[in-house]
Here is the input.
Amino acid sequence: MYTSSEENYLKAILKLSQKEDGPVSTGALAAEMQTTAPSVTDMLRRLSEKQLATYEKYYGVQLTAEGVRVATALVRRHRLWEVFLTQKLGFAWDAVHDMAEQLEHVQHPELVERLDAFLGYPRFDPHGDPIPDAKGQWPQRQRQLLSATAVGSPVVVVGVDDHSAAFLQYLDRTGIGLGAHLTILERIEYDHSLNVRLLEQNRDLTLSDKVAHSLFVEPARE
Amino acid sequence: MYTSSEENYLKAILKLSQKEDGPVSTGALAAEMQTTAPSVTDMLRRLSEKQLATYEKYYGVQLTAEGVRVATALVRRHRLWEVFLTQKLGFAWDAVHDMAEQLEHVQHPELVERLDAFLGYPRFDPHGDPIPDAKGQWPQRQRQLLSATAVGSPVVVVGVDDHSAAFLQYLDRTGIGLGAHLTILERIEYDHSLNVRLLEQNRDLTLSDKVAHSLFVEPARE
DNA sequence: ACCGTTTTTTAGGCAAGCCTAAAAAACAAA
DNA sequence: TTTGTTTTTTAGGCTTGCCTAAAAAACGGT
Here is the structure.
């Protein structure tokens, strides 16, 4: 139906418009897609012609309802494949992105749904990102950055905001994975670093401000 | 490394050169790829430049060792994905080809090997076609067409030579799948149709010459 | 060996998706 | 509001992979 390149642009536009509302700029898209501004302008024309987005010169781009539908389906496929790769094939969570990036473009009406069923209808991917359902609805979860969490309140790690292999491997080495229970013991005013207790390992450690800004948590429930 | 289009040509050349030896002609390739002769000539030049094939004008094309390696790896990926789709996702054997056609182009050094392990190292795909191993070795099996089988000798169905949905669905309706035990009761001289006994269902049926030419069997063992 | 037919290649063109360099518009700031 | 800077678009060009029409080579039969 649509080319891989078109699909990638749609996904990027969805991502950027979820970050902040209003139209997405050519420059932001070029950065996100690792390409040049003229290439973006080219593609925006095409997407506009195909009614996937509304594009106004010197203003920016927004997805149409159909554009949102296609982009959401892509995110769904991407994240389901990531679950498959980690849970069924045993890949590490820092290794699955590139494969999922290719697998998400495989076109077939039934494939996603069967895969979803095979995986047990997961609602979040290996990085804690929400997986939209077949109707395009996103699961909601009250999550916040660890950096915005109060000292003393116990939380569970439910996601990462930085998907880089470097950060994920740092977490692996440190023993912090999804589901880890943390409590902030102290916030250092000087550099905003945190002393936290990691319940699973019954030990304390220091997390930099940067790390605290890359971890999503939600209140721990008994 | 290589484009999907290049890979598809390599696979087609491998397929045609396995059917009969000597070089593959432009016309045969055009028919196999459902494209035109000039497009084939174009691509053969490119493959030749990349050392994947040796191409001589007005003579034909042959794969180099590297071309064989790439094409074999593709067949491996294609057939492993077909096993995945039928065994894990429950797709019918007449539905998996198009999906596997896309999945086979997903590039990743470890993916195939992990998939192979996950599937339990299958040696044949859902249609009974051999799956080359990681080193490019093909499993051997002494198989023959049902049409070439003697009256009276019990055989097992181990493959199909016609992969069309129409034929596969005919087999489903008739109750003949891989592993079915057949014995030819009588060969009708007039039209070469066969009266056979289907052991699983304990019933007799008539198979046309065309069907008998599309079924691979091997001698049944106790 | 010649001639008509078939096959293959050449020539030229098109769309997608990218690029660089240059022009134009928008923005910001004095 | 005018000017300098940043952002975006336009212009033109490239490769890949496809196409049709025309030319050239190979084939087959007498």
